[in-house]
Write a structure and sequence with these properties.
single chain; mainly alpha
Length: 273
């Protein structure tokens, strides 16, 4: 891998992680184009860690408020009853439930499907999944905006969104796209659907890192530390920029804007893959 290729993959990861166009799908396609198919999955996960830092940086106020509300609830003599504290605390249980469901679905997909049916790791399968993501995003154009905030997510909706995130294990299915869409389909308001999606990315990325850390040795045989650092920094800063952009697009209710692009890339992948 060259420094230019490392920089390019970092930028792709940062931009595509938050924009609902599938970072894993784009990394898979571009690694094929650039002749980098030997780079192990851990490289992708480390770039996801960079975008995790981007989430923490952009949503630091919300994340800090959630931890503060949880601390007061667990250890405070008297839990705060103000509306904002209750709203922040309301994110905790849905995140736990959704993460648990995601873990079960994700492991089943990884161990039962992806290991058994190797064609699911191919370029054409990734391209087909991008078309599925496009269809999901397109449906958000006809969904009326919900009115449910954090306090009305509920266990069932959390499980549904967690299931959607589990499906995002498939390369080409946008994790952010499918979870935001699931939130909108479940009747959440746009801001809550967006924030919950990005908060859920934190435990999901950490879990993927733990599962792939065993590949560290093979990764460093193909990627130097300097190249990894360059890709990491590129993913971090491009991720922060794309997250801020997407938060504005979510509020406008126009994430379906990305569907035509995914159709174009998906069809191209099917024809050229």
């Amino acid at each position: 891998m060259t420094a230019v290729k490392a920089l390019l993959l970092g930028l792709i990861q940062g931009i595509a992680e938050f924009l609902p166009i599938s970072s894993s799908g784009h990394l898979e396609l571009f690694k094929n184009i650039l002749g980098l198919t030997e780079v192990p999955l851990l490289f992708d996960v480390l770039l996801h860690i960079a975008t995790l830092f981007a989430v923490v940086a952009v949503l630091r106020k919300r994340i800090g408020a959630i931890f503060a509300a949880l601390w007061r609830f667990l250890f405070g003599r008297k839990a705060s009853r103000d509306e904002l504290s209750q709203q922040n605390l309301a994110f905790v249980l849905p995140i736990i439930i959704a993460t648990a469901v995601t873990g079960v679905i994700g492991i089943l997909i990884e161990k039962v499907l992806l290991e058994e049916f190797t064609w699911m790791n191919g370029t054409k399968f990734v391209a087909a999944n991008m078309l599925i993501t496009a269809a999901i995003l397109g449906l958000t154009a006809i969904v009326k905006p919900g009115e449910r905030g954090p306090e009305r997510i509920g266990k069932g909706r959390a499980a549904f969104i967690g299931f959607a995130q589990g499906i995002g294990v498939f390369s080409g299915i946008s994790r952010s796209g499918i979870t935001i869409s699931a939130g909108l389909f479940a009747g959440l308001n746009r801001e809550t659907a967006g924030e919950l999606s990005f908060l859920l990315s934190i435990p999901a990325i950490l879990g993927a890192f733990v599962l792939t850390i065993k590949d560290a040795g093979s990764m460093m045989a193909t990627v130097s530390f300097a190249q990894l650092a360059l890709a990491f920094v590129a993913a971090l800063f491009s991720g922060m920029a794309s997250l801020k952009i997407l938060l504005k697009i979510i509020k406008s209710g126009k994430i379906y804007w990305f569907a035509p692009y995914l159709v174009l890339v998906g069809i191209s992948g099917l024809l050229l893959g």
